[in-house]
Amino acid sequence: MQLVPVHKTSLSNGLTVVVCPKNEAPVVTVDVMYKVGSHDEHHGKSGLAHLFEHLMFDNTSTGMAKQYDTYCTKAGGSNNAYTTHDFTNYFISLPAHQIELGLWLESERMRGFNIKQEHLDTQISVVLEEMKQNVENQPYAKWRFVMAENSFTPECSYSWDVYGSHEDVAGVRLSDAEDFFKRFYNPQNAVLCIAGDIAVDAAYQMAEKYFGSIQSETSVNTRTNYNDSMRLYSRHVEITDAVPMSAAFIGVHAPSMLTEKMFAAELACIALGSGRNSPIHQHMIREKRIASAASVFMDKRAQTSQVCFYAYAANPEVTPDVLVDELQIAIKSYEYSKQDHTKAINKLKSSIASEFQKASGIADSVAFHETFFKNGTLINDLLLRFDRCTLEEVQQCINEYSDLSAGVRVDVVPGE
Asked: Could you count the other beta carbons within 10 Å of the beta carbon of residue 206?
C-alpha cells in the first residue's frame, strides 16, 4: 500500500524534483537537501558545512540580505535548517497559496554566491557563540568532540564534530566559502521535495519556473574517501569539566545508515535503552540507583555509524568505572524476548507514522531517501521493513554491540 504518493522528475540542470501531494490541510513544505556535510570537509577547514547552513540565510540576491525570515513570517510560515555529517537540509512550511514564495526563496539561495565579507564575519561570530553555548559552556557536551577524535584516524573526516573546531571556523575566508558553494550548492547535488496541498503538474511547472534557469557545475563533485580501516577501537579517554557528577560515554562502531542491517540495529537500541522498562534504565536507575540517566542511541552516518551508550552518576561516589561495569552487566544479562521485539517495532513505527502526519516530516524523509538511494518511494516501505526484522537479527545486533571494552570510552569527571 502506498501511504505517501511520490512523483519524481528531473530538470535539465540536474535538479531532482519530488512531489508528494497531501491534501488534508492547506499547508505545503518546500524542502531542499544538499548532499554535503562535515564528512566533505578537510583538516584546517572543518565546520564549513555547518557555517554554510547559517550563511545561506544571507545568500540571496542584491537587496534581500537577511530578509528570508521576514518574508516567511509575513506569509504565515516557518523555516529552519540543519547540518549532519553527510547532508544539509533546508525547509520552509507555508500556507498552500504561498507555495511560490517558498520556491522563490529557496531558488534565490541556490542561484549564485552572493555572500559579502560582512555576512561571513557576522555568521562566523554567530557560530562561534553557538559553539560556546552548546558545547564549551554546556555541561557534559564536550564528550562528542573527544569521542569523534578518538573513534577514527586523523585523516578520516568523521574524526571531528559537525561544528568543526573553533580555530577552523574562525579562520574561514570568503574564498573558502565561495569554493564550498561552487562545489556543493548546485542543482545536480540537491533534491527539491514539495509536500502538501499541491497538484503534481503545478508543482513541476513552478519548480521549472524558479529553479530551471539555475546553472550546475560541469564537473561532478566526489565525496571524501572512507574505509573501515579508519575506525579505532578499545580506547579510553578521561576529560574534566565543570560538572557536578561523573559520566561515561561509550561508542561502539556500527554499520552505515544506508545498509539493511541498520533496521535491526535501531531496534536493538530501542530495546536496550528506550523507556523506563528498558533493561538499561531498570538496572542502572531503578535497581542499582547509581545513575540519574542512562540509555543508548544510534549516531547514524552514511559511511559508518556508532551505537552510543551513556550513563550519568547519581551521586559523587559513583565513578565512571562503576557506571561502565554496570552498563555492561545490564546489556549482557538482557534476554531479548518476542514481547520486547513487538514493543520495539511498534514504538519505532509509531514514531515514523507520527512524522508522516505532517507535510514537513514527509518532505524530510523523501528528500533523504532520494538523496542517498535515488528512490523517495522507499519511505512507503519503512514500516514494513521494520516488521520484516526478525528477533534473531536484533539479538545478533545486541550481541555484537554488547562488548563495551571494544568501544571508545570517554569519561567526564568533575573539575575545572
From this structure: 21
